[in-house]
Amino acid sequence: MAVETKAQIVAAAGETLKARGFAGTSTRAIAATGGFNPGLIFYYYGSLHELLVAVLAESSAARLARYRSAVEDAATIAELFVVLRRIYREDYETGYVRVVSELVAGGIAHRELGPRVVELMEPWIELAEGAIERALTDSPFEQMVAPRELALAAITFYLGANLLTQLLDESAAVERLLDLGEQAAPMLELLRQPR
Known about the structure:
There is one protein chain. With 195 residues, the protein is mainly α. The protein has 9 helices and no strands. Helix 1 (2-20) packs across helix 2 (27-34) and helix 4 packs antiparallel against helix 5 (77-94).
């Protein structure tokens, strides 16, 4: 029963965050969304911020499990862009883009929340770093650019794209940027060819 209740609370918190944003996500609003007593949030999570971290952690873990093999199986830069597009589209359609954007904003406003949000991004940075390292193998860029720095740039792009999408509903602009990346990928692949 406790597992089901916790799952219900996390689901309600996620839906409330998507619908109302960080500023409008209170324990009462979450409880109203889920149809339960607000006291359950404190009983199971201790605080609103801990619950919101749990929402991000659960969603991120599920997405990582889904995408890890796709990223690791991408043998070319073009294939990586296909996976990136799939991740972005799914995140946009499911509202995960909003969850991440709102928690990043919340982490800026509430300093104790920020490090927790960053901590949950680290597995994504590591996943991107591994993919970039594989993509750079046997290319002139292999010794020129640190994969960790490019991974941070990729995550920065993702976060920026999330924020832009929330502020301006610019999902079409992000799609065009992904198109450009996919178009450039074959040229980057040529650099990997033995000379």
